[in-house]
Amino acid sequence: MKINADWHRTNKMPRCPTMDQRVVWHVAHAKNCSCRPLDGKMLGEIKKRKIKV
Ligand SMILES: [Zn+2]
């Protein structure tokens, strides 16, 4: 597991994110950093939106 601290510094999760914002954040996060794997629930939301990770 490796944290991409630079990416985290420039990509903060909004304070009260909507599900859409969370999905966008997690998709971008998965592409740039591997500190936290996508969990089942978030993966379900991503699949529901037909986003490729
Ligand atoms: Zn991360």
Defining key terms:
55% helix, 53 residues, 3 helices, single chain, mainly alpha, binds zinc ion
Task: Characterise the protein shown here.
This protein is mostly helical and 53 residues long. The mean pLDDT is 94. The protein contains three helices and no strands. The protein has one domain (5-48). 55% of the residues lie in helices and 0% in strands. It is globular and about 30 Å long. Bound molecules: zinc ion (ZN).
Mean pLDDT: 94
Biggest β-sheet strands, sense, barrel: none
Helix content class:
40-55%
Overall number of strands: 0
Instruction: Please report which band the strand proportion falls in: under 5%, 5-15%, 15-25%, 25-35%, 35-45% or over 45%.
Output: under 5%
Distance between the termini: 18 Å
Low-pLDDT sequence parts:
none
Rg: 11 Å
Give the overall silhouette.
globular
Secondary-structure-derived class: mainly alpha
Count every helix, treating DSSP H or I runs of 4 or more residues as helices. 3
**Bound ligands, each once:** zinc ion
Order of helices and strands: HHH
Tally of domains: 1
